[in-house]
Specification:
By secondary structure, the protein is an alpha/beta fold. Helices cover 44% and strands 14% of the residues. The strands form four sheets. A five-stranded parallel β-sheet has the order 2-5-6-1-7, sandwiched between helices. Strands 3-4 form a two-stranded antiparallel ribbon. The protein is globular and about 70 Å long. The structure holds adenosine-5'-diphosphate (ADP) and magnesium ion. Adenosine-5'-diphosphate (ADP) binds at residues 19-20, 22-24, 30-33, 57-63, 225, 253-254, 257.
Length: 405
Amino acid sequence: MNSLDETLTRRSLVMRSFSPSAPIADKTLFAGRIEQMSTLISIAFQRGQHAVIYGERGVGKTSLARVMKSMFGETAWTSYYTCSSGDSFGSIWRSVLADFPITDTRPRAGFSNDSVVAASTTLADMLGDEDPTPNKIRKILDLLGEADGNAVIFIDEFDRPDDPVARSLFADTIKILSDQAIPVTLVLVGVADNIDELIAGHASVQRALVQIQMPRMTSEELMEIVRQGMRSANLGVDDLFAKQVVKISQGLPHYTHLLCQNAGVYVVEQGRENVRAADFDFAITRALNNVSQTVREKYHRATFSNRETLYRQVLLACTMAEKDELGTFSAPDVRDKLCEVTGRRYEIPAFANHLTDFSSMDGARGGILVKRGVLRRFRYRFIDPLLPPYILMKGRTEGLTQELS
Ligand SMILES: Nc1ncnc2c1ncn2[C@@H]1O[C@H](COP(=O)(O)OP(=O)(O)O)[C@@H](O)[C@H]1O
Ligand SMILES: [Mg+2]
């Protein structure tokens, strides 16, 4: 192999070892989440129990669900459906049921040998033309039980359908499936702060529905992503590099993948075998271009100015501010970090307008933060979880901060 071929091969290995934009489907590249996995396993083995996986965008809900689907697939029927905004209760079930074949074996007339032919249909054929009711779905799924089957059905992006009726029909379905101990486990997956946002009328199904909240990943879990990926890419990695990546990722695996992939490709292009701490800044510079357009536009809108202003510094200080367990921070928290960023002392009135601008509903710089609470006790939170790591990366390349603490 000549060296150009070799570089290309090594490069594609790096690309495959990290997946910043796609959920993980391969168990060998899946890190952590032991607790959530064992909860899901025990739910699937208990009749009458169903699950809802919820959390912020980008924390790894789909990856968990995908990996579990392939695991359950070894012993049970499985189906995976990803909702879109136009879906209804009926359209979701039509797709799901199409994954379950009914094989009907009957003799074929006129032939003595080879007289058996399989006519394959699916459970979806039993729906007919009308919109299904939860009871109808129960009856159809019951056939799986008669066939001695066990099924696990994943419905992802459950927050997407605009149809408000769909959610309450799902709550009814869970209740009926659970009361009648049908051997089917429903796993609903979606973006939400709490389960009320996801399942209308969930109080009536509380006992049947186990809530699995997906927290951000721990530093140890993110560290595992770095190590597993680098190992799979045949690269060594410096401890300090790994720690810096973990710190800037803020619990969001997307950024861990993104930075590692960019660093790995760079190191391969240089013909090296090891990712060093010194490669971190280069990885950031490249990774910035790969961050989603939406995130980059939000940053630009929030900080753009022809004059020398404090918008970039205040936004960075918000990102660095001490957060409570809900991810919220106050103006005094921002003040302390703003001093660190600028090396000057600013009092709250000097940047109160900036916070107001970032949290306005319709202003040019708005839609970045939500503001809650009462006057003088306001607390703020970033709306898009993927924005803060980008702000940290920008801050670092623009020399606004060296130390990301
Ligand atoms: N357990 C994990 N191990 C390794 N990478 C992960 C893990 N969970 C998520 N990721 C990565 O994080 C990113 C976001 O994951 P995804 O499952 O799409 O999140 P969500 O569905 O919550 O928005 C993807 O790039 C995915 O590859
Ligand atoms: Mg997802």
